[in-house]
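quick one
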Amino acid sequence: MVYKVPFVNYPLHYKNMEKEIDAAIKEVLSRGDLIMRRQMLDFENSMASFLGVKYGIGVNSCTDALIFCLMAAGIKPGDEVITVAHTFVATIEAVVHSGATPVLADVGEDFNMDADKIEQLITPRTRAILPVHFNGRVCDMEKIMKIAEKHNLIIIEDSAQALGATFSGKKGGSFGLAGCFSFYPAKILGAAGDGGLVSTDSADLAEKIRFLRDHGRKGKDEVVCYGFTSRLDNLQAAILNVKFRYLPGWIKRRRHIAGLYDKGLKGTKRVKLPPSPGSDRRYFDIYQNYVIRADKRDELALYLKENGVEIIISNPIPVHHQKALGLSHFRLPNTEQFAKEVISIPNIPELTDEQVQYVIREIKDFYK
Ligand SMILES: Cc1ncc(COP(=O)(O)O)c(C=O)c1O
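structure w/ pyridoxal-5'-phosphate:
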């Protein structure tokens, strides 16, 4: 189905940068620069300076970035890691793959980890906090950092959805021991496939991640640990280098669209809007997703789709209620309530203001 207002538009996204992307691909292929070459190093350096950290290490996904950070930080079976269930399953998956036990905190009204719910979950086995900067908004890192310091816990930030977002002027992914980013195609900076990155100020952690992503190899011949095949492809890095130049414009555009939704939907009583851009000066949100909470959510979703608006419902089954995962003992009232109410409406930079106004009109019409 062709939507009047699509949620993603990969062909148009590519078309807007076609010449530059084609040239970057051609350069890589014609030189045979396929694995860990200049393009990957350039991208790692650009990310590190953009994020304000010393090191960026390219890996093949944010999921691997999370697993590697937990492993490299010495997390092991028997340890507990506090995170959230209102996230993509990858966050919790990574904790389990590191051998640790996930302990789930509820989220607050802004969909992010509720810092006031953390301390009650800390036990002698707790080793780390893994906050998720969801939908493009950084968690309240002032509170989370204080708790981590008080209890001597590591912080690893799941920043998959928050590249460029800041809290008190500092970028998400630069607060804790490490930040983990995703370049999945639908992300604000998306590759033509999978990609991820670890950001850190720790030379030690950076070195360990470099080993883990490349079979534990140090140099050409020495193997220092059991590792994985998880490098950021050089071809993906070349594409990301091109797209990175557009990132500030895309962030601006997403914030503009969020502003239009905020203005247009403010009076609509049966939807609850996310924080508007600039409403709290500590937060600079990049709106990876524009998520509203809607009365009669499922009917609204159907109505919008039938009228040409592509929407997404993330986690209609909260992750901790997925039977296969064995996490159903957690009671998370907000997470469970939000799973019934959330709906992500289109906010890609390629949308015109008219398309955004159309979505606003359709939502209002539904509730008439
Ligand atoms: C919050 C969050 N964490 C982790 C991931 C995993 O990222 P990747 O697909 O790069 O492994 C995603 C991807 O959607 C995500 O949204």
